[in-house]
């Protein structure tokens, strides 16, 4: 924004104000802003920079008074937003375990840069682009790994069978990351499907996953939406259409600037009729809440877990002059029975009341950790032991289980590292340790998907969902 443009804007504002005998409140407010800017430009100790005054000050401050989600974009920020919408997901094809100061490879996907470079399960990445990882927090590690996927990366890796650090140089490539990433049977006829986000193909992927597990012949399904931040609205509607008859309301939107709108199931194909349980938590938001709320209101499935996040705002993007733009809240989401999804906004002109989010039919907290579990989790001792075990045993299959002898071997492994829990402590967590050890060994020997199956089988919220479905 140039000074000439700013002056023209203010002059136009003053002209509008004078054209009316009794200015309305909007004109009065604009005149006050013009008066303030005129004083600043004439008397401030340093020259007033219009871009800084309006782009970084007046305009963002105005939107903050509406609600926390309405945002002004400078030309650079708006172009960056467009780039993000156009860009494809890139990566190296590696599944890793991230701990404070440590990143350990669990799996490399076939045909990806990491597999071609020679990374192996059990490798520990100790530095990326000459930045040591042991000095970083988990949040910093995630940020560094995310940034490294934008261009060529140099990795320094520690491998148990190598006396020196190994170097790997890789270029990121476009990666397919399905939003329906897990589908397996918890027991005969009882399916489990996890949706991590709602993208363009989510509805089709969900149907394909259910068909793979048995389709209409399934006895019941657990649909996991925990940690799912949402995504594309129409994908949530398409997913709901798999479980509801045609013409059923999935959600509605209500706003001031456009008519209220209902979104209904449109599929003409037979919908699935098996019993359904939906898992949610405090990170389930937006499209996740739409799908779970529709199932709840129509009595189609039991919702279990903890109260959802409560993000029920319709965000619209409006391009403005000179390459700027705004993301503006234009409506609210409601469930079929008219429940407001949006959690309480205590400030701003869009302040809401009530609880917001979805309250599960069955409230189940995640299982509390113990001191021993927490220590073993952050110490990477499971992964270290699993790496050694997998390297010395080449015949591990998907049906692998942890015997009592192997559990004793792991206890001896801990003892050599001065980790010696008491008898009562070990006995209390023994079966959890057995399951977790099985998970880590399968992660490296067979694949993370098989390890995830073991983790889900011990999940207390999944067990409660099965109980509600009458199959446990």
What can you tell me about this protein's structure?
The protein has 472 residues and is α+β, with helices and mostly antiparallel strands. The protein has four domains: 3-48, no CATH class; 90-174, Pdz3 Domain (Roll); 181-311, 2-enoyl-CoA Hydratase, Chain A, domain 1 (Alpha-Beta Complex), CATH 3.90.226.10; 371-468, no CATH class. It has helices at residues 3-18, 25-43, 50-64, 75-86, 113-117, 138-148, 202-213, 233-240, 287-297, 371-379, 381-392, 404-416, 423-445, 448-457, 460-468; strands at 71-73, 90-91, 94-99, 102-108, 124-128, 131-132, 153-158, 166-170, 173-174, 180-187, 190-195, 220-224, 249-254, 261-264, 276-280, 302-305, 313-319, 325-334, 362-363. Strands 3, 4, 5, 6, 7 and 8 form a six-stranded antiparallel sheet that branches. The chain is globular. It starts with a helix and ends with a helix.
């Amino acid at each position: 924004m140039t000074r000439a443009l700013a002056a023209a804007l203010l002059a136009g504002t003053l002209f509008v104000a004078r054209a009316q005998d009794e200015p309305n409140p909007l004109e009065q407010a604009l005149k006050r802003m013009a008066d303030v800017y005129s004083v600043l430009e004439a008397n401030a100790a340093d020259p007033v920079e219009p871009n800084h005054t309006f782009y970084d000050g007046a305009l963002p401050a105005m939107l903050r008074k509406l609600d926390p989600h309405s945002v002004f974009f400078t030309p650079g920020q708006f172009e960056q937003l467009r780039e993000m919408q156009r860009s494809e997901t890139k990566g190296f094809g590696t599944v890793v375990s991230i701990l404070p100061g440590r990143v350990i490879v669990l799996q490399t996907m076939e045909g990806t840069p990491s597999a071609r470079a020679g990374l192996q399960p059990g490798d520990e990445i100790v530095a990326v682009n000459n930045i040591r990882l042991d000095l970083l927090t988990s949040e910093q590690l995630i940020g560094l790994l995310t940034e490294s996927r934008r261009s060529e990366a140099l990795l320094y890796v520690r491998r148990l069978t190598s006396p020196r650090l190994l170097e790997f140089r890789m270029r990121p490539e476009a990666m397919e990351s399905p939003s329906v990433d897990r589908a397996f049977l918890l027991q005969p006829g009882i399916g489990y499907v996890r949706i991590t986000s709602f993208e363009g193909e989510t509805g089709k992927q969900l149907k394909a996953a259910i068909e793979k597990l048995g389709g209409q012949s399934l006895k019941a399904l657990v649909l996991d939406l925990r940690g799912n931040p949402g995504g594309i609205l129409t994908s949530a509607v398409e997913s709901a259409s798999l479980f509801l008859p045609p013409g059923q309301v999935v959600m509605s939107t209500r706003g001031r600037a456009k008519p209220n709108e209902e979104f209904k199931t449109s599929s003409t194909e037979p919908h699935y009729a098996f019993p359904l349980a939906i898992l949610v938590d405090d990170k389930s938001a937006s499209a996740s809440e739409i799908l779970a709320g529709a199932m709840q209101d129509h009595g189609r499935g039991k919702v279990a877990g903890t109260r959802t996040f409560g993000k029920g705002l319709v965000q619209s993007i409006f391009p403005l002059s000179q390459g700027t733009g705004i993301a503006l809240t234009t409506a609210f989401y409601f469930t079929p029975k008219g429940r407001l999804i949006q959690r309480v906004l205590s400030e701003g002109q869009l302040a809401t009341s009530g609880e917001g989010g979805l309250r599960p039919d069955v409230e189940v907290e995640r299982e509390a950790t113990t001191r021993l579990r927490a220590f073993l989790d952050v110490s990477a001792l499971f992964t270290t032991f699993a790496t050694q075990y997998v390297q010395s045993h080449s015949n591990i299959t998907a049906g692998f289980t942890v015997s009592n002898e192997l559990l004793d071997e792991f206890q001896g492994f801990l003892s050599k590292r001065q980790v010696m829990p008491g008898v009562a402590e070990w006995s209390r967590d023994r079966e959890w340790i057995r399951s977790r050890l099985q998970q880590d060994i399968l992660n490296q020997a067979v694949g993370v998907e098989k390890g995830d199956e073991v983790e889900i089988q011990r999940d207390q919220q999944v067990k409660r969902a099965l109980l509600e479905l009458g199959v446990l």
